[in-house]
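Prompt: Have a read of the protein record below and flag anything odd:
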Amino acid sequence: MKKIKSLIVALSVCSVLSANTKDEQALYDLIGRIAPQHKSNFVFRQKKQKTETYIVESKGGKIVITGSNAQAMAVGLNYYLKYVCHTTVSWRVSNPVVMPDVLPPTKRIAQTARCDKRFFLNYCTYGYTLPWFTWTDWERLIDWMALNGINMPLANTGIEEIVYRVYTGLGMSDEEIRSFFTGPAHLPWHRMSNIDKWQGPLPQSWLKGQLALQKKIVAKLTTFTTSAPRDSRAR
């Protein structure tokens, strides 16, 4: 009986120690993607406050980052990586994050956000390379946004599928709708009503694939953003 009680106590302690808030877990997942070899060297603690604030300090051989939410902790992590480890996290997943073998200690650092809303991206940036981003590319870009304090990103991937559904409901044919869209690289200018048809039509696979991608993007963005992503109409 004593052994059973001891086992229950041990399991309860382990449960408490391993329990993380959703925001804390998001940071452990983030460091696991960019520097998995040092995941166990960080401790993330969420302490809700009225302002977005983070504290970075060394305690018990660990780098302890306390923040009001996932975004604040991510910005604190980025400060430590940039100014203490002297490394950079690129938004391109192909660029490695070069980390020291042993994490250097740091003096206590505390900062509070100077503005509530931090906007990123515009319609034109959704041309060029973004149309060809896979989920792996997007996941790194979203991590980069979190590390740099972005909480109001433009999110309009996949809206052509929504437009397609609306036009279909209005009686237009599949060929008429898809031929109206431009090719992927020119969609930003199509969305701004500057051009249509150029290098179209868009294939059905593109429409459906981009909508599926957008759902993953928005789900990930809302992990780190304190404001809803702008223009995320693809639901």
About this structure: The CA atoms of residues 64 and 139 lie 24 Å apart. The mean pLDDT is 89.
